[in-house]
Amino acid sequence: MFNMSSYAEWQRGISNRNFHVCQYFLNNPRVSRLVAVDFLPFTFKRAVRSWLEGVAGRVSGKIIYQNFTTRAQRINDKLVVFSTIDSLFSGKRVIQKLNLVLDKLNQGQNKEKRITVSYFPIFVEQIGQLNQDLDVFEAVDNWLEHPSYLKYRKLLQKNYQIIAQKADLIFTVAESLVDFFKSLGRTKDTYWVPNGVDAEHFAQVSGVAPKDMAKIQYPIIGYLGTIQNKVDVNLLEYLAQNNPDKSLVLVGPTWPEFLKFWRPVASEIKRLKKYSNVYFLGRKSYQEAPSYIKQFDVAIIPHKLDKFIRFTHSMKLFDYLACGKPIVTTPPSGVDKFSHLVYIAKDYADFNQKIQKALQDNDPNLVRLRLEAAQQNSWRSKSDEILNHIQEKLG
């Protein structure tokens, strides 16, 4: 599995679709072993971080292979983590070392089907080069439309074309990504598998307020997620201005790259911090997230309506549903499927009006339906769907 994160990041409580699918694969008896390839760095800054955390950092398991730029370690009987910075210099070197590690793992083992699953469109050298039975690609968003990858646009265009031509199976997080691959000539074996949620994770948390929320005035309009380019900061300011008697609580980091490349928005965030009813609480781990959502009176998804958002599918929608919270959102991809459970706003004024309506929302039947919707969209069911397609393709 070629990941869009590192094992060290997951250990710190950072979660994404890649993390959840990985966890359920590890718990599924159909998967006998999983080699997790940490995010392959393509910038010097990321390479330094990857080396410190994955190659030279604390050892979590038994070392299988190690040199100055690479380390593979067995975490348990089922999970092996492979970390390298060789991708900064040579994709072929990454493949050579991976093959060496896989050969070591397969000594004395019965022949198994080998599948590569990639979340990382910057790197496609693994396709057909690891003696695999299937090449699978998981399209999480469209990186061509992400402002942080603008200077890699030509490489991404080339790689998406290679994926469209050579991957045996493609899964997409948004329905519009199926059409995107059709535009590249891909007409079969492409499936839309939306995001999911671990409903039990959110159900088991008590309603006790975290310390940094204990003194915040209710009612609380809450957002949980990274403050990055897809967040409409002007909408947040509009809400702060029009709700002086309410607290606007933003739980999550302000992405440094976001501020570096989008200075106008950085100034908007600085302006937002001037409001006394706005609270920036910073990054919280996946383990902490339910405790914060439980304190929201209404949960919001204030995303911009641009090209990038068309190719996304909000994980936080399901996190909010799993807590039974009323939700007000702009209309990103896939949210219309839940229009009977959430409030979808068409503009700033409508967003604010729907917040007022959501704050009066105390229908226990709606809470029950939200919880049921979360249960019906579990990561277990999404991961099983992916494995079912893989098994069917293997014949």
3D architecture notes:
This protein has 395 residues and is of the alpha/beta class. It folds into 2 domains: 7-196 and 379-394, Rossmann fold; 199-376, Rossmann fold. It is 38% helix and 15% strand. The protein has 15 helices and 14 strands. It has helices at residues 7-11, 17-26, 44-55, 91-106, 153-166, 175-183, 199-203, 233-242, 256-261, 263-272, 289-293, 315-322, 348-359, 364-376, 379-394, and strands at 34-37, 62-66, 70-74, 79-84, 115-118, 134-139, 169-172, 190-192, 220-224, 247-251, 278-282, 298-301, 327-329, 343-344. The strands form 3 sheets. Strands 11-10-9-12-13-14 form a 6-stranded parallel β-sheet, sandwiched between helices. Strands 1-4-3-2 form a 4-stranded mixed β-sheet, sandwiched between helices. The chain has a 4-stranded parallel β-sheet with strand order 5-6-7-8, sandwiched between helices. Helix 5 (153-166) links the parallel strand 6 (134-139) and strand 7 (169-172). The chain is globular, with a radius of gyration of 22 Å. The chain starts with 6 loop residues before the first helix and ends with a helix.
